[in-house]
């Protein structure tokens, strides 16, 4: 049985590596088709170039950029609307087009909190992707976006409460952290064998390393600490209402 194809949808360049880099690398190693849609930053920007390198490391093809501006960095897509301010129907339609083009078995995106930091772009990406995963299978919605395709499942990248204390030394104690009760996690993925790829992809986002964002904090950690803190990924499974059996699972 072939490995299920995987399409990830995240807000910014580096989110794919931080949140699901291990799952992407693992599925690619198993021979699956993998790809990443990124909501913000435009072609020709330095972060789009860094994203291309990270995806090469993860085996996830070329960037698929929606072309919206980061909520906090207008220069990320000069002359373009901020993602959170774009018409919802337009943003959903752009994701639907990628879903129907790639035709994934499963999808991955941010959880309802937008992951640990709760960034507004992350939260909005969750909303847009949830709607797009459903709409992609309905022929009368977005008819110009391609033939209908329904992913079997959508996995939300998250963190359980129990994982937060160990991460506090990295992310700091002053920042808000969003996590879910442990019992809500439905897939715990050991990505230890792919940790070097995952970390290399994170560090490919050089501008984030240089400015001291999370990739920079990870860069400063010794290898054993990186593995201890980032060799597990957690997900919450969501099944679109239009999907019937059989079930397709994220590799765990």
Explain this structure:
- This protein has 252 residues and is of the alpha/beta class.
- The chain has one domain: LmbE-like (Rossmann fold, 3-Layer(aba) Sandwich).
- Helices cover 38% and strands 15% of the residues.
- Strands 3-2-1-4-5-7-6 form a 7-stranded mixed beta sheet, with helices on both faces.
- Strand 2 (34-40), helix 2 and strand 3 (64-68) form a beta-alpha-beta unit.
- Helix 1 (15-29) packs antiparallel against helix 6 (195-203) and helix 3 packs across helix 4 (120-135).
Keywords:
alpha/beta, Rossmann fold, 9 helices, 7 strands, 38% helix
CATH topology grouping:
Rossmann fold
In DSSP terms, counting alpha (H) and pi (I) runs of 4 or more, how many helices? 9
Overall mean confidence score, pLDDT: 94
The CATH superfamily is known as LmbE-like
Shape verdict:
globular
InterPro entries: GlcNAc_PI_deacetylase-related (IPR003737), LmbE-like_dom_sf (IPR024078)
Pfam families: PIG-L
GO molecular function: hydrolase activity, acting on carbon-nitrogen (but not peptide) bonds, in linear amides
Keywords: Zinc
């Amino acid at each position: 049985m072939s490995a299920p194809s995987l399409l990830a949808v995240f807000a910014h360049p580096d989110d794919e590596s931080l949140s699901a880099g291990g799952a992407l690398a693992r599925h690619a190693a198993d021979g699956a088709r993998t790809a990443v849609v990124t909501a913000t930053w435009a072609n020709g920007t330095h972060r789009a170039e860094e994203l291309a390198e990270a995806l090469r490391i993860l085996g996830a093809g070329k960037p698929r950029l929606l072309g919206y501006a980061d909520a906090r960095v207008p220069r990320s897509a000069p002359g373009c609307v901020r993602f959170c301010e774009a018409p919802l129907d337009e943003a959903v339609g752009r994701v639907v087009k990628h879903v129907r083009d790639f035709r994934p078995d499963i999808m991955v995106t941010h959880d309802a909190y937008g992951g640990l930091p709760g960034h507004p772009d992350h939260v909005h990406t969750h909303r847009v992707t949830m709607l797009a995963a459903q709409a992609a299978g309905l022929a009368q919605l977005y008819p110009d976006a391609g033939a209908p395709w329904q992913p079997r499942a959508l996995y939300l990248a998250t963190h359980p409460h129990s994982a937060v204390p160990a991460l506090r030394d990295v992310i700091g104690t002053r920042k808000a952290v969003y996590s879910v009760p442990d019992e809500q996690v439905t897939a715990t993925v050991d990505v230890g064998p792919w940790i070097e790829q995952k970390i290399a992809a994170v560090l490919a986002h050089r501008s984030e390393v240089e400015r001291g964002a999370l990739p920079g904090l990870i860069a400063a950690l010794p290898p054993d600490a990186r593995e201890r803190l980032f060799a597990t990924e957690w997900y919450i499974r969501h099944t679109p209402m239009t999907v019937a059996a059989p079930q397709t699972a994220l590799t765990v």
